[in-house]
Amino acid sequence: MATPPTIIPAFQATLGSSSHILAIAGAGLSAASGIPTFRGHGGMWRKYDAMSLATPEGFHENPSLVWQFYHYRRETALKARFNAAHAAIASFSLPWIRHTLAPGSTFTLITQNVDGLSARALETAEASMTIPESSTEDQPRILEMHGRLFDVLCSSGSCQHVEYNATSPICEGLDGTEEMVSGGTLDPDIPVESLPRCSKCGSLARPGVVWFGEMPQHLDTIDQLVKRADLCIVIGTSSTVYPAAGYARKIKRNGGKVAVFNLERSEGDEAADYLFLGPCEDTLPRALG
Ligand code: BJW
Ligand code: ZN
């Protein structure tokens, strides 16, 4: 396939004439923050079995393995800092900044990432500026469609209590086991009594992330936003996991434009009008700046 253009002024002209902009992000957005991706070089699914660690069946089979993996991911995310790409998106989320490039436009970031770094970048951007009184918006700035590492969910069907818990370590039974995981070994034998428990009913808790075969979050809102979007910015995702992988093509079919920011060629290129190859922490701040 021919390479779509990589011309920042042409992309910015499209930004300038867009009314409803969506960004769809994946693990590549957080790569520069030291969070491993899933499928590429050094990807987690090359080292660990996705079906054992990221499915409800895997959790049912061996919650010890799954909790260790997610404890390691929580500890890594807690130590990480958001990078220049998160910061560029966060600034662009603020209407009074975005409207200098894309007057009158709306914007939402739909992220598949569960590390919370985009939300942290947005909080920082919002806190660093005085918000003009006229800046009320009726649509969310971020939707974390695959959940959040720091949400802890009761696994009992009759309770379903969810709470935000960023404690480190989340429980004594997992303390220090992150060292084993980073070395590539998982301990299948931590007793369930020593794993995180629901603070309401005492049942075994699970990570509040969306596993294969589960329904992603905010789908109704996302479907509405995808229907009306006229520009889709695809950032650091292999575009292989659905439904997220289908959004750019839907927007393109509705007459919208697509810009892809990725280290390398990906499935998302199929729909691309613009393709910015390279680390998004370099390309995105230039394109949105
Ligand atoms: C850089 C970079 C840098 C690196 N700068 N770029 C056939 C057809 C359609 C669907 C299915 C199907 N068969 C099965 C399904 C369903 C399944 C699915 O899509 N499977 C595929 C594998 C085929 N999907 C589901 O089960 C989903 N639910 C669902 O479909 O419900 C039913 C339904 C929904 C809607 C309508 C109707 C019905 C749920 C999917 C849940 C995915 N869960 C995970 C784990 C989350 C928790 C956790 O984090 O542990 O989500 S799996 C993993 O993959 C994680 C990610 O969010 C997701 C996507 O990965 P991502 O982000 O794209 O990462 P990578 O590693 O793949 O790519 C990184 C990219 O970055 C690369 O391209 C690099 O080049 C690039 N990069 N550094 C720029 N510095
Ligand atoms: Zn409970």
From TrEMBL:
Its cofactor is Zn(2+). The active site is at H146. Pfam families: SIR2. One of its GO terms (cellular component) is nucleus. NAD(+) binds at residues 26-45, 112-115, 236-238, 262-264, 280. Its EC number is 2.3.1.-. Substrate binds at Y70, R73. It is found in: Mitochondrion. Binds 1 zinc ion per subunit. In contrast to class I sirtuins, class III sirtuins have only weak deacetylase activity. Difference in substrate specificity is probably due to a larger hydrophobic pocket with 2 residues (Tyr-70 and Arg-73) that bind to malonylated and succinylated substrates and define the specificity. This is NAD-dependent protein deacylase. It comes from Collybia nuda.
